[in-house]
Write a structure and sequence with these properties.
single chain, two-stranded antiparallel sheet, globular
Length: 403
Amino acid sequence: MTSSYVYDAVRTPFGRFNGALAGVRPDDLAAGVVSAILGRHPGLDPAAIGDVVWGNANGAGEDNRNVGRMAVLLAGLPTSVPATTVNRLCGSSLDAVMIGSRAIETGDADVVLTGGVESMTRAPWVLPKSNRPFPAGDVTAVSTTLGWRLVNKAMPAEWTVSLGEANEQLQERFSISRERQDEFAARSHRLAHQAWEDGFYDALVVPVDGADLTRDESIRPGSTAEGLAGLKPAFRSPEQGGTITAGNASPLSDGASAVLLGNAGAADAVGAEPLARIAGRAAFALDPQDFGYAPVEAANTALARAGIGWSEVGAVDVNEAFAVQSLACVDAWLAAGLADPELVNTRGGAIALGHPLGASGGRVLGTLAHVLRERGARWGVAAICIGVGQGLAVVLENEGGRA
């Protein structure tokens, strides 16, 4: 077994729903980051890429028919470069990284390009076929943007509640107040804005052809907990104890990300030294309605496989699907030995940056790799919750960092 490394990571700026990227097809978004990451390494022969593994959560519209392969073809790579598309919902592009890293470690490939894409704006409505042609009644179009649709009646009702209701149940379980959620959300906006001001994302974010967008579109620099407190709950009424609002949950978003992986010997071909080693991976699953808490054990297991504990972790990037589930995970990790909650999402998170489902895992991992370098820390954890009760986590090692 050989080691697998992250050599580079890029992403588009994330656009808000019906925003600046609304006119860009998802396969074009994907092709754009493929071209961009390879353009940064002109010495790398695209034909040497052993595989392309791409993440996508919806796949119901222009991202159908293996959008990873479509991205390879649209980006002008040789037709000999293979590609596959994986769907683990919000974790799809982190899953792509995990799959690609295993291919490298087993010797099946020297270089693997991974990533993911989602246009939640352009996700289509679908009409299910009727049992008989020409039904006499009305037919309902179903949105494929987010969440459960065309639910199998055999599924228990408690499994198929909305994502928001599932997280309201989580806040009841762990007594996470509306105030904490709003404070966490305001922090996300503040840190994301500061990261852009500091130039942190300049090396990570690449432009989108035909779109006038240079920064993540959903960041609200002036957000405060006091201002967010005025928003109405979205899934339960105040009388029902609702705490989740549009302000303390991630927005619907469009975007793409790419992560270039290779073995130690790929440095010469890539023309760069690796950013970080992939030291541990894990998937975890529990009841579907508890999906927001699944990153807890995914990260614990990934750390155990890397042979380290939480006390050695110098940076964490967890996808902020909802403030409440992020807080529940961080609280659990603090109890397990994480030194400081301020180590989490130091450059903002999905509440501010956006959450284009299939692209978010690549964004989380790429951000973490650069934060480890920025802080000189050795160990970091990237984690993400996934609808229908799953979570993923990857441990990175910055081999030149301090323990």
